Amino acid sequence: MRGEKMEGSGEGHKPCDCVRSSINPRKAAMDPKKVKSDLVLILDFGSQYTHLITRRIRSLSVFSLCISGTSSLDTITHLKPSVVILSGGPHSVHTPDSPSFPDGFLQWAQANAVPVLGICYGLQLLVQRLGGDVRVGHTQEYGRMDICVHQPSALFGSHKIGKRQVVWMSHGDEAVALPHGFHVVARSDQGAVAAIENPSAMLYGLQYHPEVTHSEEGIETLRRFLFDVCGLEAGWTMEDVMEEEIMVIKDTVGPDEHVICALSGGVDSTVAAALVHKAIGDRLHCVFVDNGLLRYKEKERVMETFQKDLHLPVVCVDAVDQFLSQLKGVTDPETKRKIIGKEFIAIFDEFAHKLEGKLGKKPSYLVQGTLYPDVIESCPPPGSGRTHSHTIKSHHNVGGLPKDMKLKLIEPLKLLFKDEVRQLGRILDVPQAFLKRHPFPGPGLAVRVLGDVTEGNALDILRQVDEIFIQSIKDAGLYDSIWQAFAVFLPVRSVGVQGDQRTHSHVVALRAVTSQDGMTADWYYFEHKFLDDVARKICNGVRGVNRVVQDITSKPPSTIEWE
Fold it and tell me: Which of 6-15, 177-186, 211-220 is the most confident on average?
């Protein structure tokens, strides 16, 4: 892993190595050719930070999209990008199977005046493909490093020679000889190349990661590159997203066709439903499924919100027995997700048949609130040679759907991050209190009861514990400061003493994290008194629990959910 050191394991590598191969650029929502903004196209070579490049650029009101770094030249040119960024990655340009952009890409970029910026591994690719020399560095550079501007440059603008800044490095290889026309504009304190330019060819490279917050002037460097060097204009807004999505939905769904929307009670599916309803009106038919895996009084609370605040036509289907009978005895997390996805689709198909009898026409489409992180976490790493990655987890709205599904999917939020979905929801007048709800996984409590969800009274215990935890967070005024909080039922028992008697009862874990998009997360630091109060409430108020633990791991190395 010469191009970039991967930190952690499991999901720490996976979300960012993903190739966006599950997004068909020709069919994706938010057609870049119609969006009121230039497109910055990111060719992803597996960096754990690639999603941050997308987010940083969008935060500057410029539309950005990721596709596989090994996409065909036809795929790249079809999107008509104004700028292309080559991401970092864990590879070395010296290995035979290292991923690279397609032949002819640089010639096309130059012929069409499309600037290219290589970041970390992307810089090394530029150097190597253009005839320069990349070698294993004498000293590797990982983490915070100081760099120094060596000569006037487009990337660093008015920064004087000798100007220093702190950046985030993550590389083992380094460029030692540059191709013709390039010059070094910044070096690290150890003498390694930190930034290169060939302005006449509109080719630029940064050996560090400007997209991470540890690079103190990184966002300003990206801003300068996009607006001053490339001449882009900030013109991408969430209002544009809404208008474009409505056009896409109307173009997709025929004037006489009907659509089913699977409402989970979460922010994503609700915003998706509100958006589709705005596009096609009463031809949207919403269904909320009680699968026996919901939180405490979730059905009652959610249905009230749908009917009173959102005025969406919703049918509630009681499928508790159907789901739990299929999950009985199942302990593997992936199997649980697949079963749940399959049962959901079976219910939607049945619901569609009933609608067909009522309408005289069967609905053709199913709306789901799939988000960009869902897609990212369900696709294969570049350079792996695999069509399916080592799976961290399948999303029932991405990887868990049966191949014989009869309904075609509409996923209007597929290219948005969670905070962007909330912005869209505000424009669509979804109640603020609803938009602030913490994320809830599609498989529900099935992935928060480790092991068999039907064993004993695990689900009832978890619901009670979770309700105490969340209500305590709200009472303490902490709810809006936390990205996601929940309880987990562990498949272990511990010895305790309650009421002067020895007990052998269940253990539950509390998990709370802060995050911007769910791709990375830090555990939330509670005051000790708060944790003490919550633990006492749980052990005193929930029969069958005698021990409470807290999960204090970040993502990576852990995922937010336990399964």
Answer: 177-186
